[in-house]
Structure formats: structure tokens, C-alpha cells
Write a structure and sequence with these properties.
Blueprint lengths: L2 H26 L6 H8 L1 E6 L2 E2 L3 E6 L2 E5 L1 H13 L2 E6 L5 H6 L5 E2 L7 H4 L2 E9 L2 E6 L16 E5 L3 H9 L4 E5 L2 H9 L5 E5 H9 L4 E5 L10 E7 L3 H16 L2 H17 L9 H33 L5 H18 L3 H11 L8 H27 L2 H9 L4 H31 L11 H12 L3 H31 L1
Parallel strand pairs: 1-5, 1-6, 9-10, 9-11
Antiparallel strand pairs: 2-3, 3-4, 6-13, 7-13, 8-11, 8-12
Protein name: ABC-type amino acid transport system, permease and periplasmic component
Subcellular location: Cell membrane
GO biological process, one term: amino acid transport
Length: about 500
């Protein structure tokens, strides 16, 4: 790697890490705790949760609209009401919840979360609002084979990534492979397809899945658990002492009046029964249509801005001459190499959570920005290759006619370059249709996100996946036909 390029990359990484460090320093040294007044002034309380864990939190169709319900949502509503603010529920994967809390994307996390010592180092917890236990869900046909966690020797046991079930399954089983997934519905699907032998989860959730799926059964786990591993509490950002103290009054009322068992769980059970009344895929056409809409919005916007960025980067990479142009060329090269050398998923999370420390971007906007930044790096290389493929005589002819270098590039070189790389640009567009699914990890309601909603609603694992496969194919095939049409027109011209 050229020495100048290496120096540029190190410089960029230094800026990024330095920015992150200075932000942490500022946050850690905040002198005043205005957490309570900030929420009351804002008038809303944003609750982060992972709605794939009935009866704690899950998706349900209410009056034709999909909403997040469950006993944890009822807890959040009680807290918001006592604070005199409006509750807003934000959905994301379980292992992203604490990051979202620390970066200010959500105000609190209620997701059946255990207040373990490791978590207490990073966030503040309220008093406990519920105490349960662990069970293991298995296929009903295997009920005579497995009795508890010690029966899975030589087998694979699943658990949700980032949960205490995952940690304890790894600690307390021997000769057992523990497989983690971000979604419990994915784990249940893997169980039914015999990819794993069992799923460790909270007892109420296990009961919910078994009650609504006749192919499943539940066995005791016999995990050796501490008090912190079987309870649930509300998480807040570290240092939110005033807010936590205020919320503790609500949590204590919930615990003392046993509202979870007497009110919240029975209400969640009614939603669970409603979900299984009509589990046909046609019943959820609005959810799939919403997913298609968001997928196309992300793809079109990311393609547009990615193309503009790609043109700028490709031209920057071809600059020659004075030291300023050389510096710009090396910076553009460093950007392209850095983006192409890191996974898009990491870039999406960095834009949403990392930049969120400076400006609170919505999930959809963050997803579009991240995918556009990623696409721009690849488009830059396509365009640079297209420009290099244009015969040098074209430039000489244009300049001999008195055209400036800018006009030559705009009216002579770029049109021919675009024509040469059109198939590559079309392939990039089709790829982005599929890659847009990555933004589901930050809670954007695209097609993958909506399919998870339907799976959580219906307890059907394969049918929603089959539907979105068909929808993705329709979108990509249609886009391919349109792009081929314009390609033929360009060749004819």
C-alpha cells in the first residue's frame, strides 16, 4: 500500500476515534442530572424494545393496524402516565438496545431485561417489576429425548444474542454448542427446521410460543440462576438518578399491586389469541406493502445520492497537479478503500448510533445515509473505470474544438463513460434493493422488518419468508427489465 494512502487512512481513523473519545469524555463529565426535567420538558418518553418476545413484547394487529403490545409495553405506559408524558415505542434488535440507550436514541429500555452486574456498569436500573424463570422450548416430537439443559450433549441449544440465557447456556452446558440469534422468532424457525435442538428463554415467553404452536413443547431448564438472572427491570442511561428515582415509584406500585400477573399478563394473552385467529399471509398484505414501500424509498434515495457521491469521488481520484489536488486525491482514495473494507452493517450502526451522539437522526434517514455512503464508494470505481475506458482521442478532439477541461468531461467523456458502465450501475441498483434489508437492525420498517412482524404475529416461520422472497424477486426482476430497456436504447443511439 502506498505510504501516502496509509497515512491518510490512519489520519481518518485518528479523527474518528478522537471524536468518539472526546464525546465520551464530555458525557462522562456532565455535572448536572437533568434527566427528569429533560423528559418532562420534551413531553415524550421513548421506550426501546425488541418485540419478538411474547408475552413481554410482541407485534399484534389491532383494528387493522400493527402495534407493539405486551406486558412490558403496559409497564412503559404506566411509567409514562405517572410522568405526565406520552409513551413512544421504538423497535430494534435486542443486542442494540443498550447501545441505543447510551447514544440517546431511546430514553429507557423495557424488554424483559435482567439487571446483571455487567449491565449495571453501563446503565442504571430501576427496582424490579417482575420475577420469572427459564425454560427450554423443544419440538414436541422430541419430548421424550430432552429433559433439561443437561440433555443437549452433542446438540445445539439456541438463545437470543445479548441475553442472559445466551450467557448462561454457554456457561452451564458441557459439550453443547450454543447458537445465538438476534430474534427469538428466528430461533423458533431454526428449531422447527431441526437446525437447533432447543431454545432457552424466559418461562412466560416459552409458555406463549407453546400455547400458540402445537408442534412445540416446553421442558424445565434447571439452570443454576442468581437472583439477577430471573428478574426484569427498566434500564436508563447512566447517571439518570433523578429519572430513575421518579420511575421507581411507578415500578414499586406495579410490584406491590402485582399488576403484571393480575392485569398486564392477562391482557397480553388476549392479544396472543387474537394473533392466531387469522394467520394467512393475505391478512398481512398491508405489512408487506409497507415493507416494499420502505425498501424502494431506501433504494431509490441511496442510489441517487450514492451516484452523486460516486461522481465526485471518481473525479477527485483522478486529480493531478498541485499539492492541494494531490491531498484531495489521497483523501478520496482513503475513503473508497475504508468504505469497501468495512461491512455495511457496521456502517449502518455507526451512522445511526455513532453520529447520533452529535445529531439525532431518524432510523430511516440514517439507513439511507449509510447505504448511500457505501454505494458511493463502489460507484466511484465504476465511473473511474468508465472514464478510463473512453478513448483518449475523444478528449483531444474536444479540446481541439476549444472546449474547456470541465466541459469536455461533462459533455464528452462522462456520457460515454455512463454508457459503458450502465450494466454495472444497474447491478449496483439491484444489489441495493437486497442490501436495504440490513437497515432492519436499527428498526426501519423495510421488508425484512415487516416479515419479522408477521412471523411474530402468526408464529409461522416459513410462510412470511416465502412471501418476501417472491416480493424481492418481483422488485429485482422489474428493475432489471427497466434497466435493460434503457441499455438497449443507449446502444441503439
Amino acid at each position: 500500500m502506498p505510504k501516502k494512502l496509509l497515512i491518510s487512512i490512519v489520519f481518518i481513523l485518528t479523527l474518528l476515534t478522537g471524536w468518539g473519545g472526546s464525546t465520551h469524555f464530555t458525557t462522562a463529565n456532565a455535572a448536572t442530572d437533568n434527566s427528569l426535567t429533560k423528559i418532562q420538558k420534551k413531553g415524550t418518553l421513548v421506550m426501546g424494545t425488541s418485540p419478538d418476545y411474547p408475552p413481554y413484547e410482541f407485534q399484534a394487529t389491532v383494528h387493522g393496524k400493527t402495534k407493539i403490545v405486551g406486558m412490558d409495553v403496559a409497564v412503559g405506559q404506566k411509567i409514562a402516565k405517572d410522568l405526565g408524558v406520552k409513551l413512544k415505542v421504538k423497535s430494534m434488535s435486542f443486542d442494540s438496545l443498550l447501545v441505543a440507550l447510551q447514544t440517546g436514541k431511546v430514553d429507557m429500555v423495557i424488554s424483559g431485561m435482567n439487571p446483571t452486574p455487567a449491565r449495571k456498569k453501563n446503565v442504571d436500573f430501576t427496582h424490579l417489576y417482575y420475577q420469572g424463570g427459564y425454560s427450554i422450548v423443544i419440538n414436541k416430537s422430541d419430548k421424550g429425548i430432552y429433559q433439561d439443559k443437561d440433555s443437549f450433549t452433542g446438540k445445539t441449544l439456541g438463545a437470543q444474542t445479548g441475553s442472559t440465557m445466551y450467557t448462561e447456556s454457554k456457561k452451564q452446558t458441557s459439550n453443547t454448542k450454543v447458537k445465538g440469534m438476534t430474534s427469538v422468532s428466528d430461533l423458533i424457525l431454526a428449531l422447527q427446521n431441526h437446525k437447533i435442538a432447543g431454545v432457552a428463554m424466559e418461562k412466560p415467553s416459552a409458555q406463549a410460543y407453546v400455547a400458540n404452536n402445537k408442534q412445540l413443547a416446553m421442558i424445565p431448564s434447571h439452570f443454576n440462576l442468581s437472583a439477577d438472572d430471573t428478574v426484569a427491570a427498566v434500564a436508563f442511561k447512566k447517571g439518570s438518578t433523578a429519572l430513575v428515582n421518579k420511575v421507581n415509584h411507578s415500578v414499586d406500585q406495579i410490584k406491590n399491586q402485582d399488576l403484571v400477573n393480575k392485569t398486564y399478563l392477562p391482557a397480553a394473552g388476549k392479544y396472543l389469541k387474537t394473533n392466531t385467529v387469522n394467520t394467512s399471509m393475505w391478512h398481512y398484505w398491508k405489512a408487506f406493502l409497507t415493507g416494499v414501500e420502505y425498501t424502494l424509498i431506501i433504494t431509490v434515495c441511496a442510489t441517487f445520492f450514492g451516484f452523486i457521491l460516486g461522481v465526485i469521488l471518481s473525479l477527485a481520484r483522478m486529480l493531478q497537479g498541485n499539492p492541494l489536488k494531490t491531498a484531495i486525491r489521497w483523501l478520496a482514495t482513503a475513503y473508497v478503500e475504508f468504505i469497501r473494507g468495512t461491512p455495511m452493517m457496521v456502517q449502518v450502526m455507526f451512522v445511526y448510533f455513532g453520529l447520533g451522539l452529535i445529531v439525532n437522526l431518524p432510523a430511516l434517514t440514517s439507513g439511507i445515509i449509510a447505504i448511500a455512503l457505501n454505494s458511493g464508494a463502489y460507484v466511484a470505481e465504476y465511473i473511474r473505470g468508465g472514464i478510463n475506458s473512453v478513448d483518449a482521442g475523444q478528449t483531444e478532439a474536444a479540446r481541439s474544438l476549444g472546449m474547456s477541461s470541465g466541459a469536455t468531461m461533462r459533455y464528452v467523456i462522462l456520457p460515454q463513460a455512463i454508457k459503458n458502465i450502465w450494466p454495472s450501475l444497474g447491478n449496483e441498483f439491484i444489489t441495493l434493493i437486497k442490501d436495504s434489508s440490513i437497515v432492519s437492525i436499527i428498526g426501519v420498517s423495510e421488508l425484512i422488518f415487516q416479515s419479522n412482524i408477521v412471523r411474530s404475529d402468526t408464529y409461522r416461520g416459513v410462510a412470511p419468508i416465502a412471501v418476501i422472497m417472491v416480493l424481492y424477486f418481483i422488485m429485482t426482476f422489474t428493475a432489471s427489465r427497466i434497466l435493460n430497456h434503457f441499455e438497449r436504447k443507449m446502444q441503439h443511439d
